[in-house]
Amino acid sequence: MPTTLPPGPRTPSLLNGLVFVVAHNRFLRSLHRRYGDAVTLRIPPFGTVVVVATPELVKAVYTAKPDVLHAGEDPLGEVLGPGSLFSMDEERHLRERRMLLPPFHGERMRSYEAIIEEEAKAAMAAWPEGVEFASLESFQTITLRIILRAVFGAEGRELAELEALLPPMTALGQRLVAAPILRRDLGRRSPARRWRAMRARYRRLTDKLIDDHLADPDLAARIDILALMLRAQLEDGGGIDKADLADELLTLLVAGHETTGSALAWSVERLRRHPAVLHRLEAEARGDGNALRLATAEEVLRVRPVISATFRLVKKPFEIGGWRLPPGVWVATGITTLHRDGRFHEGAGSFDPDRYLGKKPDTYSWIPFGGGVRRCLGAAFAQFEIDVVLRTLLRDFELQPTSAPGEREGFRGVAFAPSKGGVAVVRRRPLPQAAGPPESTSLITALNS
């Protein structure tokens, strides 16, 4: 069968790239309306990209053999470094993933609940009452500190220095991913040179954390993920590779910091415009249940996914939907387009958490975390984190509804966030609502089912 590509626009690659950055989701939806469920698009830095947006086509991508479709050659992996999961494929990727997966599931994941609630309460203590403020920055502070403590095991001076360094470093890294030309070293003030300086400072801090962990006589009792990674390397007997560890820690931060913070800001933005759902969530938060809260998080991730597509590079001829894609072509799953397609989600334009009450989202039509062997390994952790932070918010504050138009999607280089930062208006409750964790067994079962 000869190689063939789906139809698509013939506009110049650079023009496609500019529109892709400025109006990403609207652009892709318009292309799918015009050309169908699979569209060929030429954009920098990828070149030729085939974007697919049906469950059947998505399944074909996510179940393809790893030697046919690679994910470890995209710009994100290039920026994060060779030790990042985003830079790995086939056996090396699977081996690294197996090592990192356990702390993001089950009882070990639940051990981070106290950290999540503590950081949420600390950040929310500074929220103003009765006036509008952008919630995104606060949520990103929460998710950053959770990762620094639960993943990096940072404390004291290293915690403070990483907390100051990583937000601007993440913001710059996203720009480098979105615009390859910025990765060229054009002098002392160029983004590439600034990135290298930030990376060098980051490595000094992570090397210090690794050394402190290795010198800790209680390393075996530590619950942070860096400790787990170090124990695994020591048990392997292959020595400690500080460079790879630093890349992987940065990957876990990038994958779980801004994305989860954005999802929380979208939760605020959506709930303020759906007071009936908000009132039901407030009632639920007075008890120990969390079924509606979990369903709400899933619906937020459907209507406002923070990642709009996942990419794979064709390494061997790949047949999909009647086409035969040649090596060198990229294939992308159109997450936002798929999530808003009424053929696969009844009443797709409405915000309706009830669609997921007591019902697990479909594996190939609800894909905010990607899928297959490349599915975000922190997906369950992110949902757990959203659940605990929203529980804290609902118990300690009254979130004021609004009739203002919904916020637009703001593209930040990798993730999408509310264009105005998820504007909130809150009032503290006279007394905190019922304390205590949600029904842990049902929560962990729901997240890992």
Output the CATH topology: Cytochrome p450
Calculate the mean pLDDT score and round it: 89
Which value, in Å, is the CA radius of gyration? Answer: 22 Å
What is the global morphology?
globular
Q: Give the N-terminus to C-terminus distance in angstroms.
A: 40 Å
Helix and strand composition category = alpha+beta
Strand count, sense and closure of the main sheet? Answer: 5 strands, mixed
Which spans have pLDDT < 50 for at least 5 consecutive residues?
438-449
Total domain units: 1
Number of helices: 18
Please tag this protein with its features.
449 residues; alpha+beta; Cytochrome p450; two-stranded antiparallel ribbon
Please write out the topology.
Layout: H1 13-22, H2 24-35, E1 38-43, E2 47-52, H3 55-62, E3 69-70, H4 75-80, H5 90-100, H6 106-110, H7 113-124, E4 133-134, H8 136-150, H9 156-178, H10 191-215, H11 225-236, H12 242-256, H13 258-272, H14 275-285, H15 291-303, E5 309-314, E6 318-320, E7 323-325, E8 330-334, H16 335-339, H17 379-396, E9 397-399, E10 409-411, E11 416-418, E12 423-424, E13 426-428, H18 440-448
Parallel strand pairs: 2-8
Antiparallel strand pairs: 1-2, 3-5, 4-12, 5-8, 6-7, 9-13, 10-11
Helix pairs in contact: 1-2, 7-8, 7-17, 8-9, 8-13, 9-10, 10-12, 12-13, 13-15, 15-17, 17-18
